[in-house]
Write a structure and sequence with these properties.
The structure holds two protein chains of two kinds.
Chain A: H1 2-17, E1 20-23, E2 33-37, H2 44-50, H3 54-57, E3 60-65, H4 66-69, H5 73-82, E4 85-87, H6 98-106, E5 111-114, H7 132-139, E6 144-151, H8 153-156, E7 170-173, H9 185-201
Parallel strand pairs in A: 1-7, 2-5, 2-6, 3-4, 3-5
Antiparallel strand pairs in A: 6-7
Helix pairs in contact in A: 1-2, 6-7
Chain B: H1 2-17, H2 27-51, H3 60-85, H4 88-109, H5 117-137, H6 145-167, H7 174-191, H8 194-197, E1 204-206, E2 213-215, H9 221-244, E3 249-251, E4 255-259, H10 260-280, H11 288-316, H12 331-353
Helix pairs in contact in B: 2-3, 2-9, 3-4, 3-9, 4-5, 4-7, 5-6, 5-7, 6-7, 7-12, 9-10, 9-11, 9-12, 10-11, 11-12
Classes of the chains: A alpha/beta, B mainly alpha.
Chain lengths: 202, 356
């Protein structure tokens, strides 16, 4: 039953987003990765997750906002299907930061989908990245950090809307980057953001 | 009470069953379909042969475009053949899906604003399906569905769109945004829906000796096939003439490959081809000269459609709808000429030959 629901969910996500997936300079792989993408719509996590091949998808967990996905029975049910890692953005504890939680939940099997901008920018511009990606790269240097550019999905479902409009969008996944030895936090975050933006053009 | 309910239930079921009558193809139509398919297979083979001749005088880029188009046409005809052997409603659904996809491409290309979101929702999920639902209901049920079918988008939708956008309170570039959505709906959905609507026409035929209009005995699948064959023939002739003998470009700022030679050549040859088809394999109720005039009209409308879509693409600064979002194949690039030809072909046919 759950398999059927997942199949329906991914089919709906693909239909509404009309998303094509381009793997630019990399291939789908089951190794541990962190996909970091620009954030434009509530559908981002779901569409990106749906567009991964099935064998990769079962090993990938989107990091999502707890207050959104635990609001109401429908969202709770949908979120039980794509197995997100829910982060409470209101109660960030110093001794148990979201990064520690992510690393603990990933273990040695799961990959993550994160949105380093922190929030959605209604204008569609990509904001400065928050530092989470840097700490993930620092604590787990073995992870492949995959830049992802999501195009046009903010028009499919803008902030504050409930019903999507089925326009065409595209998801570009680029070659992995890693934290270079001695690279400063700011330099790394700028480079990571640029890697995402570069996919917009090519 | 319960027996009335049972009668109503059976009645609505039988009403529903009329959707699934298949009577689109007769032997002449099937012969024409086979002839077209064989020709396209020969062209495909020819294209593949030319591709392997490096020292030929024709430009390789032209051969590549030719091959892509021939394969697209072959695909269209194979799918059309399959749908036309199935119940009538399958062809309607097939065109509905194409419309939906074309509208997606069109709206994706045109910048809309945040305030248009809910209007677009109704355009996609109410007006588009309802238009095709009405095609399938033509000639059935208690209502005169044709009266609603012809005005749903020109009247109801084109008033709804500006009204709904105005209520959102976003007045920036209001007329432009309204016009874009209206135009997209008109071309991609309304115009194209006339192609499957051809299947639901009740037509007569002028008896050449007495001049009296009699009921036409042929199948309406032939009309749809005639339209698609003529559009594709015209596109193909125009493509070849533009490349091989075209000198005078019509409007370089709109499209730098379309020439007057191609336009006129395609119109004349399509007209002759229309006459020929009617004399050899009569799939329509037209007379031989009527068929020629219809084919000529289809060719001119098809060329206008191509020019219009080129103008929109140049205005938006894109090459093909296919390259709009990475990796999508452009449906709109393939159907622009059908969109313009279908409503005119439908209405001229209906005006002269409709019975009852």
């Amino acid at each position: 039953m759950k398999q059927v629901s997942i199949a329906v969910l991914t089919m709906l996500a693909k239909f509404f987003s009309g998303a094509t997936v381009r793997w630019v300079g990399c291939m789908p792989d089951e190794c541990q990765r962190v996909y970091f993408a620009n954030h434009t719509s509530h559908l981002d996590a779901l569409v990106l997750w749906s567009s991964l091949p099935k064998n990769v998808r079962v090993l990938t967990r989107p990091v999502a906002a707890k207050e959104y996905w635990s609001g109401g029975p429908v969202r709770r049910y949908v979120s039980s299907l794509f197995n997100p890692l829910l982060i409470d953005r209101k109660q960030v504890k110093v001794h148990d930061s979201p990064i520690d939680l992510m690393i603990r939940e990933m273990g040695t099997t799961y990959s993550l989908i994160i949105f380093p901008e922190g929030g959605r920018n209604p204008s569609g511009e990509t904001l400065e990245f928050k530092s989470g990606l840097y700490y993930l790269g620092k604590k787990r240097p073995d992870l492949e950090l995959m830049p992802v550019y999501i195009d046009n999905l903010n028009r499919v479902m803008p902030k504050g809307e409930f019903w999507p409009v089925p326009l065409l969008s595209s998801i570009s996944i680029g070659a992995p980057i890693w934290l270079e030895p001695g690279e400063s936090k700011q330099d790394f975050l700028t480079r990571a953001r640029q890697a995402v933006l570069d996919l917009k053009e090519g | 009470m319960s027996q009335w309910f049972a009668i109503a239930l059976i009645g609505s079921f039988m009403n529903f069953a009329t959707f699934f009558q298949s009577n689109l193809l007769d032997s002449t139509t099937i012969l024409l379909l086979v002839a077209v398919l064989v020709t396209l297979v020969v062209f495909t083979a020819l294209g593949q042969y030319l591709k392997r001749q490096p020292e030929i005088a024709i430009d390789q880029a032209i051969i590549r475009t030719f091959n892509n188009r021939v394969i697209a046409w072959l695909t269209i005809f194979v799918v059309l053949t399959i749908t036309m052997t199935l119940p009538q409603v399958v062809t309607v659904v097939f065109f509905g899906v194409i419309s939906f996809w074309a509208l997606r491409e069109f709206i994706t290309m045109t910048p809309t604003r945040r305030g248009d979101h809910r209007t677009l929702f109704w355009v996609f999920f109410l007006f588009t399906p309802f238009q095709y639902y009405m095609v399938a209901r033509l000639n059935s049920g208690a209502f005169d569905w044709y009266a609603m079918y012809t005005i749903l988008i020109p009247v109801y939708a084109s008033l709804f769109i500006p009204g709904r956008i105005a209520f959102t309170g976003d007045s920036k570039r209001f007329l432009e945004r309204t016009a874009k959505i209206q135009f997209g709906l008109l071309i991609c959905v309304y115009a194209l829906s006339h192609a499957p609507a051809l299947l639901y026409l009740n037509l007569g035929q002028y008896n050449p000796t007495t001049g009296v209009k009699e009921i036409w005995a042929g199948k309406t699948g032939g009309l749809l096939l005639f339209l698609i064959v003529m559009v594709q023939f015209s596109d193909m002739v125009q493509f070849i003439w533009d490349r091989l003998i075209g000198k005078h470009v019509i409007a370089p700022s709109v499209n730098n490959t379309r020439t007057w030679e191609g336009l006129i050549g395609a119109a004349c040859l399509t007209g002759l081809f229309g006459m020929l088809v009617q004399l050899v394999l009569p799939v329509t109720p037209f007379t031989w000269y009527g068929s020629g005039v219809m084919a000529l009209l289809i060719s001119i409308m098809g060329s206008s459609g191509k020019m219009t879509m080129s103008a929109i693409k140049r205005d938006r600064g894109i090459e093909d709808y296919g390259t709009l979002v990475h990796g999508h194949s452009g449906v709109l690039d393939r159907i622009d000429s059908v969109c313009f030809a279908a409503p005119i072909f439908f209405h001229v046919t209906r005006f002269f030959l409709s019975v009852g």
